[in-house]
Design goal:
Residues 89-296 form the ABC transmembrane type-1 domain. This protein is mainly alpha-helical. It contains 13 helices and two strands, in the order ααααββααααααααα. The protein has a two-stranded antiparallel ribbon with strand order 1-2. A hairpin with a 4-residue loop joins β1 (73-74) and β2. The protein is elongated and about 85 Å long.
């Protein structure tokens, strides 16, 4: 199903882009548009294939990708699409990976602690935090973080990956990554936190956990070695189902923090009907989500003790 889904998504991307109200030629020429004659515009549109039917453009793109491995030329950035992805994709992966790691670790720790004492102050705090974050868009969390931690307290930088136009270093990248990664992690936390808490409450009541308690094992051993593995099974499934939110959330956070990832390139591609770049970003995102879901299913099978791996 992987190849048909990718083909369908890429075709839908070309069709939707062809329905865009933006003028791709005006976006391509920029300030030169008004100084260009009608004949020159028509000639350029013919060269770029702007007037071709969307399915003809899509079919040419598929042929170039399959036969030559060529993702095409970005009209909006005037660069090969492969170069754009090579430059920007690592930044998006860094932000998305850091945000997902923060969300997973924080959800596991807070969810386990809350499940140990249902109805306690910590349990009510965890539930309230999850419901609040669930209803707040990521860009609102980002603006609050900037107002408090950057502009108010001055602890963290506001945007970019370096200060004052300097070349980025590992230290500056790490410092600039903290706030956007935390914002992305908070936006991903609600469902993960609630799932861990619910699964742990159920796991702590299972017979093998009660038997471990009856043998006199320390509570931390009972919780982390006996109850948590059982709670991880549904948690892995939820993480896999939330992978699209990692992508969309990362793009929103990148926009707010001027992070040099795929967000700006995606906006430029959408507003200028840059078919090759828009298709490449969309297909790449779809492939990442499908592969992530496949990995989550594989981890579920490995973690489930009821599955015979012989």
């Amino acid at each position: 199903m992987f190849v048909p889904v990718i083909a369908l998504v890429s075709a839908a991307t070309f069709w939707l882009a062809s329905r865009s109200p933006f003028d791709p030629l005006a976006a391509y020429l920029g300030d030169r548009f008004e100084r260009t004659s009608v004949e020159q515009r028509a000639s350029l549109a013919e060269q770029l294939g702007i007037n071709d039917a969307w399915y003809a453009v899509w079919w040419r793109w598929v042929g170039d990708v399959v036969v030559r491995g060529d993702l095409g030329q970005s009209r909006s950035l005037a660069r090969p699409v492969a170069d754009v992805l090579a430059q920007r994709l690592p930044w998006t992966l860094l932000l998305g990976g850091a945000g997902l790691t923060i969300a997973v670790v924080a959800s596991l720790v807070l969810g386990v602690l809350a499940a140990r004492r249902p109805g306690s102050l910590l349990d009510r705090f965890a539930g309230g935090l999850a419901y609040v974050l669930q209803g707040v868009p990521p860009f609102v969390v980002a603006l609050v973080g900037i107002a408090v931690l950057s502009l108010g307290l001055g602890w963290l930088p506001v945007a970019g990956v370096a200060t004052g136009g300097a070349d980025p270093t590992w230290g500056s990248i790490a410092r600039h990554l903290v706030l956007p990664a935390c914002v992305l992690g908070l936006s991903l936390m609600p469902w993960l936190l609630l799932n861990v808490r619910t699964s742990m409450v159920a796991a702590l009541r299972e017979d093998h956990v009660q038997a471990a308690r009856a043998r006199g094992l320390p509570e931390r051993i009972v919780v982390w070695r006996h109850a948590l593995p059982a709670a991880l099974l549904p948690f892995v499934t939820v993480v896999g189902a939330r992978l699209p939110e990692v992508v969309t959330g990362a793009l929103l956070v990148e926009t707010v923090f001027s992070w040099p990832g795929l967000a700006a390139a995606t906006v430029d591609a959408a507003t200028s009907m840059d078919f090759p770049l828009l298709a490449a970003v969309t297909v790449l995102t779809c492939a990442a989500v499908l592969l992530g879901s496949l990995l989550a299913d594989a981890l579920y099978l490995l973690l489930d003790p009821r599955v015979d791996h012989a």
